[in-house]
User: Fold this.
Amino acid sequence: MNAEVLITKIGPGYGKLLSELGRQSFVESHGQSASAEVIEEYTVRNYTEQVFEEMLSDPRNHIHLMTVNDEPAGYSKISFDALHPLVRSAQAAKLDRLYLLNKFHDLKLGHRLLQFNIAYSQKFNQDSMWLFVWKGNERAVKFYLKAGFEVKGSHDFKLTENHSNPNHLMVLDFNSRN
Assistant:
């Protein structure tokens, strides 16, 4: 059976769907990075319908929903001309989120969503892409390395006042891709 996979740009009105999808995918990929209490505190604060509606309403954010046979499977969030001291270009896209539910991993849709975001960024004259990825998510780190990203630095991602996760800063230069 062939799955129908769609990637659609979305805006206001999708906050409830994205808050649920985002929370589930965050817990699946980061749930082991801290205690259950820390993860719960972080997601209760950051994965609300209101937070996502604000994100969706910000014109600087480009948010895409991936569906498989009309079922939400993942999403991405990028912004353009995102400056960071360790990223040389002023025309760099920040891939702020790329999440795929675990049940869709075997379909290799993460690669498809990443390639979509790279091509989408290039249409907006971006020449590179950068992101933060939790060092403990070995699958994600390998995924980005295989896609051509390089580790350029580190960053502590603050979950709560008392807990941070160590992240890699990774960069992909579009001009050096094969």
Q: What stands out?
A: The first helix runs from residue 15 to 30.
